[in-house]
UniProtKB/TrEMBL annotation:
The active site is at residue 128. Residues 668-741 form the BRCT domain. The keyword Amino-acid biosynthesis does not apply. It comes from Nitrospirillum amazonense. Its EC number is 6.5.1.2. This is DNA ligase. InterPro entries: BRCT_dom, BRCT_dom_sf, DisA/LigA_HHH, DNA_ligase, DNA_ligase_AS, DNA_ligase_CS, DNAligase_adenylation, DNAligase_N.
């Protein structure tokens, strides 16, 4: 299957395989970009991957949702800084690449809001600065805290460093408009470095024999994230403000008015901006900024379009990781040639054998690339990639560097076709490809997101395309006897989006595993106690000072209390990524309820192993499958985990060592539908189906995709079908669209 093959010609199986590959690549490159400030591909290469992923999900909708990077933001905060939980999540933006994407963006907003073509709809367009996202909190006009975006929910505390940036006021000035300064104001924007300042910094660094930076974005990020604030103070950092987080009072009624208010308060804005009224005007702005791009004093990688009216922004709301009311229109990038020195095989936590191209390092668009995924043996065979080949490496749109093809005319005479191993390089067990896939499950099974299942990683780190269908990926059959799988699961457990234990990184985990110190998650939390029983205590080992060991134990102790969503994600259940874990936590709320429900559902599934209709399997299983974006494929992988006695025992031992917090839904004080399960069916007249679902979830309701005895309300629009029929058969409460609107607006009381 070619990565450039037309999407509408893909089979569901091929689409699933490519989706899994893209997810793995994106996950790895996000970690490099957001956590290490050391990307291995250009922004354009990253964007190209995301574009392909979005197009796949549009054509194959069952691949989207909770099982895709389109549902997650950035990467978890790096070690070394205090953590800050964002009161308002810092989300990413959706991307547009072609003119028709912009036209579709405008059309989708009109559809969502049910606006005809003549209804006024204004947008603010502004340059997209290539820098590091930052949130700055002011209370009573004084700067009290600053944090990076991190994973969108939690970032790094860089307050001391931010106070040294001249563009960022420590005290807000009185606005020209005469309006008072908000008591609470979180200003959000981008820390960046001007091009001329970047060149001067690199020259000075080289003269001192110190590290030079690949590009201005890396220089800005590296300068801000210094543990010594005096280093940051010596770097030429600047700041553009473009939006806000928590507010005690509105800045205005429109985006453009609020931007002006930020300028009045002392912030520099991203300019030149423009108010546009049509898709054609947006495209004219894009082309105009593109023509100026080389002469701008700072780097941009695109432009951003935002709906101007804030009341419409509120109605449009958010997807899992992106606002519906804004998008980034990206500029394209490039390719390069290098030599394929070797092909290595990595074994991931689900046993997948992933081939990795080891490349002669080359700079592509200012980023040094030395490794790239080869995805699977079929991809190697299709492209006929051989060791010694000159290969074309592309960096145009998403996460990882991608090998487009080999240059046949430059192939060495002795280059031989690559023979994929049939045995696991870690344990010697047979590595097999399944031929018993069910076609009807192919579309349901989507890619595992997050964790260590990345398609590319620096030397010593893990790459695994975990959720490719078994017909594509070759897997080790060793299971728990395979040390690679066992240690990769532990690495995933302590990864940034899971338990995030500072000081217990990849190399230390592998070391402790090889020494028998840590063999399962619960061992992490008994490590300090057991150290007293060992002669070869950690503190006596090379590379472990007393302070570093004390810090490690303190970091472990700090993670004895964990959120339910992080715990679920940390277990590494196949197809349960970060977004899926949050869906599960939001539905079950407590670890006891979740664990009991999963065990019961697993028992029901074991009694009905081939039944495809969830309601005929059992109550607990049907409840799981009814959660929005979770289908039979995901549910069955969860059941496979809970059917195993050793997995249940492992979880019990872990829970004996930690405290799991009850999942906190967003505040829905006064909501008449909080905790209620709602199903929408038929065509709604006053709002789109997407808007209706988003509004219900914002009020604390659970939106389900199917009707069951536990459904509280079925909202019926025009031309309702089988769901309405089933609701009547079950005697459920059925509401018209107007009755639903009256209920959530408080005009009527909840039905008895």
């Amino acid at each position: 299957m070619a990565a450039t093959q037309a999407i509408d010609t893909l089979t569901p199986e091929d689409a699933q395989a490519e989706h899994a590959r893209l997810v793995a690549e994106i996950t790895h490159h996000r970690a490099l970009y957001y956590q290490k400030d050391a990307p291995e591909i250009s922004d354009a290469a990253y964007d190209a991957l995301e574009k392909r992923l979005a197009a796949l999900e549009k054509h194959f909708p069952t691949l989207a949702g909770a099982h895709s990077p389109t549902a997650t933001v950035g990467a978890a905060p790096a070690a070394g800084f205090g953590k800050v939980k964002h009161r308002v999540p810092m989300l990413s933006l959706g991307n547009a690449f072609e003119d028709e994407d912009v036209t579709d963006f405008v059309a989708s907003i009109r559809r969502f809001l049910v606006l005809d073509d003549e209804a006024p709809l204004d947008f603010v367009a502004e340059p997209k600065i290539d820098g590091l996202s930052l949130s700055i909190r002011y209370e009573d006009g004084r700067l009290v805290q600053a944090a990076t975006r991190g994973d969108g929910a939690e970032g790094e505390d860089v307050t001391a460093n931010v106070r040294t940036i001249d563009d960022i006021p420590n005290t807000l000035t009185g606005p020209v408009s005469g309006k008072g300064t908000p008591a609470v104001l979180e200003v959000r924007g981008e820390v960046y470095m001007r091009r001329e300042d970047f060149l001067a910094l690199n020259k000075a660094q080289a003269e001192k024999g110190e590290k030079v930076f690949a590009n201005p974005r890396n220089a800005a990020a590296g300068s801000l994230r210094q543990l010594d604030a005096s280093i940051t103070a010596g770097r030429p950092l600047r700041f553009f403000a473009y939006t806000w987080g928590e507010l005690s009072e509105p800045l205005g009624t429109t985006q453009s008015e609020s931007r002006q208010r930020l300028a009045e308060l002392g912030f520099t804005l991203s300019e030149p901006s423009r108010l546009c009224r049509t898709a054609e005007e947006l495209l004219d702005y894009y082309r105009a900024i593109g023509a100026q791009r080389a002469t701008l004093p700072f780097d941009i990688d695109g432009v951003v379009y935002k709906v101007d009216r804030l009341d419409l922004q509120e109605r449009l709301g958010f997807r899992t990781r992106t606002p519906r009311w804004a998008t980034a229109h990206k500029y394209p990038a490039e390719q390069a040639q290098t030599i394929l020195k070797a092909i290595s095989i990595q074994v991931g936590r689900t046993g997948a054998l992933t081939p990795v191209a080891e490349l002669e390092p080359i700079t592509v668009g200012g980023v040094v690339v030395s490794r790239a995924t080869l995805h699977n043996e079929d991809e190697i065979r299709r492209k006929d990639v051989r060791v010694g080949d000159t290969v074309i490496v592309q960096r145009a749109g998403d996460v990882i560097p991608q090998i487009v093809s080999s240059v046949a005319s430059l192939r060495p005479a002795d280059a031989k076709p690559y023979e994929f191993p049939t045995h696991c390089p870690a344990c010697g067990s047979l590595a097999v490809r399944s031929t018993a896939e069910k076609a009807d499950m192919a579309a349901e099974m989507a890619a595992v997101e997050g964790g260590t299942d990345a398609a590319e990683a620096p030397p010593g780190e893990s790459i695994e395309t975990a959720a490719e269908p078994d017909g594509v990926v070759r897997r080790c059959t060793g299971g728990l006897i395979c040390p690679a799988q066992a240690v990769e699961r532990l690495i995933h457990f302590t990864s940034r989006l899971a338990f995030d234990i500072e000081g217990l990184g990849i190399e230390r985990m592998r070391l402790f595993f090889s020494q028998g110190r840590i063999r399962e998650p619960a061992d992490i939390f008994t490590l300090e106690k057991r150290e007293d029983e060992r002669l070869d205590r950690i503190v006596t080992m090379t590379g472990f000072g007393k302070k570093s060991v004390e810090k490690l134990f303190a970091a472990i102790e700090a993670r004895r209390t964990i959120g339910l969503d992080r715990l679920i994600y940390a277990l590494g259940i196949r197809q349960v990524g970060e977004a899926t874990a949050k869906l599960l936590a939001r539905h079950y709320l407590t670890v006891d309820h979740w664990q009991e429900s999963m065990i019961k559902a697993a028992q029901e599934r074991a009694a009905q192993p081939t039944e495809r209709k969830p309601e005929l399997v059992g109550e607990a299983y049907a409840e799981l499958c009814a959660i929005e974006q979770i289908g039979v494929g995901v549910a069955d992988d969860m059941m496979a985990f809970f059917r195993e006695e050793h997995n249940r025992a492992l979880l019990d031992r872990l829970l004996a060592q930690i405290t799991v917090e009850t999942y906190q839904r967003p505040s829905t004080t006064g909501s008449p539908v909080v905790g209620k399960t709602v199903v929408f069916t038929g065509t709604l007249e006053t709002m789109g189906r997407s808007e209706a679902k988003a509004k219900a979830e914002s009020l604390g309701a659970k939106v389900a995709g199917s009707v069951s005895a536990k459904t509280d309300y079925v909202v019926v629009g025009a031309d309702a079908g089988s769901k309405a029929t089933k609701a009547r058969e079950l005697g459920l409460t059925i509401l018209t669209e107007q009755e639903w609107v009256d209920l959530i607006s408080g005009k009527t009381a909840a039905p008895e």
